[in-house]
Amino acid sequence: MKFFADTAEIADIKDLAATGLLDGVTTNPSLIAKSGRNFMEVTKEICDIVDGPVSAEVVALDHETMMKEAEVLRKIADNVCIKVPLTIDGLKTCKALTSDGTMVNVTLCFSGNQALLAAKAGATFVSPFVGRHDDNGVDGMDLIRDIRLIYDNYAFETEILVASVRHVTHVLESARIGADVMTAPPAVIKNLVKHVLTDKGIEGFMADWAKTGQSII
Ligand code: E4P
């Protein structure tokens, strides 16, 4: 499963990229606003740090303007992935852009039928929002199971990019289901490594090693 960082914070992206475990980045208008940075500038900086896809979202609601915005965004770097909302205009834009070889991430997906449409529109990625479903009392992971089943039934190549990830259990469940990608806030990605028995184990080994009085280097 590929790991994307769901952030526009350069320091966090650099930090995660240095581990060699980061496969891409997703941004959205809210994350850009939170960063306080210029959209074009920060997107270019992210594209320079990460080799993989960097999602940059259009803000127009009609197809013609989405196409114009996508034209500007895709010039930022070769690894820009244009993010469009799951609407008829967004799907139309997705079809036009992917037919032309541009990566597209169809976002704000909340149902299996919407995911089916995104795949039919040739989306590179579809972004189902699990956390926002959970917030509304619906198990977001059921949506990932549905999409995996639907895409496998028809051998769709659109990658399932689990979004709105809030905690490590979302990541584990996504991997169990066989999602292609998950995008999570840096704090969640960093939490994946934590286990109390790992810490306790290191503590014990260090204490016993000290008793030997030896050193490796
Ligand atoms: C990423 O592509 C999505 O925009 C993001 O994961 C949404 O997360 P949120 O529901 O926590 O805002």
From TrEMBL:
<dbReference type="GO" id="GO:0042182">
    <property type="term" value="P:ketone catabolic process"/>
</dbReference>
<keyword id="KW-0704">Schiff base</keyword>
<keyword id="KW-0570">Pentose shunt</keyword>
<dbReference type="Pfam" id="PF00923">
    <property type="entry name" value="TAL_FSA"/>
</dbReference>
<dbReference type="GO" id="GO:0016832">
    <property type="term" value="F:aldehyde-lyase activity"/>
</dbReference>
<dbReference type="GO" id="GO:0005975">
    <property type="term" value="P:carbohydrate metabolic process"/>
</dbReference>
<comment type="function">
    <text>Transaldolase is important for the balance of metabolites in the pentose-phosphate pathway.</text>
</comment>
<keyword id="KW-0808">Transferase</keyword>
<dbReference type="GO" id="GO:0005737">
    <property type="term" value="C:cytoplasm"/>
</dbReference>
<dbReference type="GO" id="GO:0006098">
    <property type="term" value="P:pentose-phosphate shunt"/>
</dbReference>
<dbReference type="InterPro" id="IPR022999">
    <property type="entry name" value="Transaldolase_3B"/>
</dbReference>
<dbReference type="InterPro" id="IPR018225">
    <property type="entry name" value="Transaldolase_AS"/>
</dbReference>
<dbReference type="InterPro" id="IPR013785">
    <property type="entry name" value="Aldolase_TIM"/>
</dbReference>
<dbReference type="InterPro" id="IPR004731">
    <property type="entry name" value="Transaldolase_3B/F6P_aldolase"/>
</dbReference>
<comment type="pathway">
    <text>Carbohydrate degradation; pentose phosphate pathway; D-glyceraldehyde 3-phosphate and beta-D-fructose 6-phosphate from D-ribose 5-phosphate and D-xylulose 5-phosphate (non-oxidative stage): step 2/3.</text>
</comment>
<comment type="similarity">
    <text>Belongs to the transaldolase family. Type 3B subfamily.</text>
</comment>
<feature type="active site" description="Schiff-base intermediate with substrate">
    <location>
        <position position="83"/>
    </location>
</feature>
<dbReference type="InterPro" id="IPR033919">
    <property type="entry name" value="TSA/FSA_arc/bac"/>
</dbReference>
<keyword id="KW-0963">Cytoplasm</keyword>
<dbReference type="InterPro" id="IPR001585">
    <property type="entry name" value="TAL/FSA"/>
</dbReference>
<dbReference type="GO" id="GO:0004801">
    <property type="term" value="F:transaldolase activity"/>
</dbReference>
<protein>
    <recommendedName>
        <fullName>Probable transaldolase</fullName>
        <ecNumber>2.2.1.2</ecNumber>
    </recommendedName>
</protein>
